[in-house]
Design the sequence.
């Protein structure tokens, strides 16, 4: 799989994933009053965001033809 997530995109995904994960865990601990389904959705979103930031590959970007990675398509990324 070629990387299709650029450095700025990775940073945004990491920040949003961390915040979503913290809010999800705070909700599970009872600190933030959210319904259980919202906590679960935030947790899943956090895992997806952090996973795509770590691997540099986003499946949705691949389907839509989006590439924020500045490396050339012929070289290694």
Sequence:
């Amino acid at each position: 799989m070629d990387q299709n997530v650029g450095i700025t995109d990775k940073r945004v995904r990491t920040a949003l994933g961390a915040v979503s994960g913290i809010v999800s865990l705070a909700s599970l601990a009872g600190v933030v009053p959210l319904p259980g389904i919202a906590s679960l959705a935030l947790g899943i979103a956090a895992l997806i965001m952090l996973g795509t930031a770590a691997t540099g590959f986003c499946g949705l970007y691949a389907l839509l033809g989006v590439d924020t990675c500045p490396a050339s398509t012929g070289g290694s990324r």
